[in-house]
Specification:
- This protein is mostly beta strands and about 550 residues long.
- The chain has 5 domains: about 120 residues, Immunoglobulin-like (Sandwich), CATH 2.60.40; about 120 residues, no CATH class; about 120 residues, Cadherins (Immunoglobulin-like, Sandwich), CATH 2.60.40; about 120 residues, Sandwich (Immunoglobulin-like), CATH 2.60.40.60; about 55 residues, no CATH class.
- About 5% of the residues lie in helices and about 35% in strands.
- Strands 8, 9, 12, 13 and 16 form a 5-stranded mixed beta sheet that branches.
- The chain is rod-shaped, with a radius of gyration of 55 Å.
């Protein structure tokens, strides 16, 4: 039987992870080659995990139930076992020790066999003494009981059980295993009467001797023996190992599973996120957004001891965030999230899904670094931005009586919001329409059709006949967005005004009159004056009121001088 099993990996998953070692025990015989009468005996093996917690405990609630993973060795010497999750040979896991005893089905001989594991190097004056207080409870074939206790000469005496004083077997570091065996069998063969609890069926008849070949303590008649470790010492360190005469001496082997690096673990505390955040909010920091961050599962004790959990990356849609950071404290396992979206970014313009990836080491020096990613989404509500437009010409002059005036491109760069607000300007489902509204016009009398600007930016108006002067016009660009304004009480947040001036320059109109009478006179009448011959004499048409102050002169030209 090998003393150790290695080159097996730790159990990464409790289901279907049984390890089989075939062959594990070879040259199986029921006795020595000279014992020809035992050839037909069947040999079985009893494997005992000295620390059962290192093996899979089984799951009775599963369907079908999953058996435990304690080590077992069949009659062919095949070993099977299943370790507990994440157990391996690394610190701080304890050594995985398994004790094996071979047992044949032949008749039991002279009674139990006791193996003395006494090591002088660990005896008195070691502190604490591992052997002081170890006991052998012996019941002979009559049922009489005596309890024998090792007693370090430098420590207090022996105890008692239910009023029965233990028989002391003094020892010290000067003893060897052989000398201690002689003390033990001498005590067993002739205990004082005060140390024996008689059963009333006969005198003390237990007899022990030391096998010269094996140095084991054996008994010559039907005897029952129970060993106990000193108080506070595990069974692994007990000095006495008791077996039946048809059992081999116990042998111990070690399982050395190689470690598997588990991915780190952490929890994203999304409950700390607000239901939504307004567009263009200031930076937000959420403490304890990451919790329970560790380099591996809680069962991976070697990784929790030797590795450090770190942030590998925090990613999202390109252009979505001006700031996006996760900081994790590897000691507390807690981390904070800080984020700020770029200008005019919201959940309609960008996918605001964030992926946080943690790692358990430095991949530059360790190729076995593992990564774990978690995803969450931040919701940002849109805010209606101001529409925008340019007005390159702020002073427009046209002549009196120009009639219909059209100025394409009077307003340019017309947008429902800034270029970065693509939900208002570009995305079909949310794109806004804009229109111009005339807010004020200081001189309506100049126009038959008041100034207006189309959605494409064309300015139109129609002048009134014979009118001139100046008008200051205020035009407002509005969008049709239904999303809330930045300040809901301020309607101007979804509008923008610009002012320009229209000047209608005057034109001098021809004067007007009518001939009211008839020019009739006698021959040789000389100078003739006809009053009222011309009527309704004006410096221009009646609508040209700006010409009323003009001075008129009449020029008459004879057709036939």
């Amino acid at each position: 039987m090998p003393a150790a099993i290695s080159a097996f990996q730790e159990v990464p998953d409790p289901v279907g992870s049984t390890t089989t070692v075939d062959p594990f025990i070879t040259n199986i015989k029921p006795g020595p080659g000279s014992a020809g009468d035992e050839v037909g005996q069947q040999v079985t093996f009893v494997a005992t995990a000295l620390d059962p917690s290192l093996f899979f405990p089984g799951d009775a609630t599963a369907n079908p139930p999953i058996p435990d993973g304690l080590p077992r060795i069949d009659t062919n010497g095949v070993l099977t076992y299943r370790l507990a999750v994440d157990v391996n040979q690394m610190v701080p896991f304890p050594t995985i020790l398994v004790q094996v005893v071979a047992r044949d089905d032949g008749a039991i001989g002279n009674g139990p066999v006791v193996t003395n594991r006494f090591n002088p190097a660990l005896a008195s004056p070691s502190t604490p003494n591992l052997y002081d207080g170890a006991t052998l409870s012996v019941i002979d074939q009559h049922g009489n009981l005596a309890i024998f206790e090792l007693d370090d000469a430098g420590l207090p005496g022996v105890g008692a059980t239910n009023g029965l004083p233990h028989m002391a077997i003094p020892f010290s570091s000067a003893d060897s295993q052989a000398s201690l065996n002689q003390k033990i069998i001498a005590a067993i063969n002739a205990p004082p009467a005060a140390s024996v609890l008689l059963a009333g069926t006969g005198p003390w008849v237990a007899q022990a001797f030391v096998d010269a070949a094996t140095q084991e303590i054996q008994f010559t008649n039907s005897t029952s023996v129970v060993a106990a470790a000193p108080g506070g010492v595990s069974s692994l360190d007990a000095i006495f190992a008791v077996r039946r005469s048809n059992e081999s001496a116990p042998r111990t082997f070690t399982i050395l599973p190689d470690p598997i690096n588990d991915p780190p673990e952490f929890t994203v505390n999304t409950s700390l996120l607000a239901a939504s955040y307004p567009e263009d909010s200031a930076a937000v920091t959420i403490d304890d957004f990451i919790v329970d961050a560790r380099p591996g599962p809680v069962t991976a004790l070697d990784e929790l001891l030797s590795q450090t959990v770190q942030v590998h990356s925090v990613t999202s849609t390109p252009g979505a965030f001006a700031q996006l950071d996760v900081i994790v404290n590897s000691v507390t396992g807690k981390g904070s999230l800080t984020f700020k979206t770029n200008q005019d970014v919201n959940s309609a313009t960008h996918d605001l899904t964030v992926v946080v990836t943690l790692k358990d080491g430095n991949e530059a020096v360790d190729p076995d670094v593992k990564f774990t990613s978690k995803t969450f989404t931040i919701t940002v509500d849109p805010v209606n931005d101001l529409p925008e437009f340019s007005m390159p010409v702020k002073q427009l002059t046209r002549s009196e009586d120009a009639g219909l005036v059209s100025f394409p491109g009077f307003a340019t760069n017309i947008l429902a919001g800034p270029a970065t607000a693509i939900d208002e300007t570009t995305i079909p489902a949310t794109r806004q329409a804009v229109h111009f509204v005339r807010v004020s016009n200081t001189n309506d009398g100049l126009f038959d059709e008041l100034p207006s600007i189309s959605a494409s930016g064309e300015l139109t108006f129609r002048t009134k006949q014979d009118q001139n002067g100046q008008s200051i016009v205020v035009m407002r660009l509005m969008d049709d967005g239904t999303i809330p304004a930045r300040t809901p009480s301020d309607a101007a947040q979804s509008i923008v005004d610009q002012t320009f001036t229209i000047t209608i320059s005057p034109i001098n109109d021809a004067p007007t009159f009518r001939i009211a009478g008839t020019a009739a006179s006698l021959e040789d009448a000389g100078s003739v004056v006809i009053p009222g011959f011309l009527a309704d004499i004006l410096p221009g048409p009646p609508s040209a009121t700006d010409e009323a102050a003009q001075t008129l002169t009449v020029h008459a030209t004879p057709i036939d001088p």
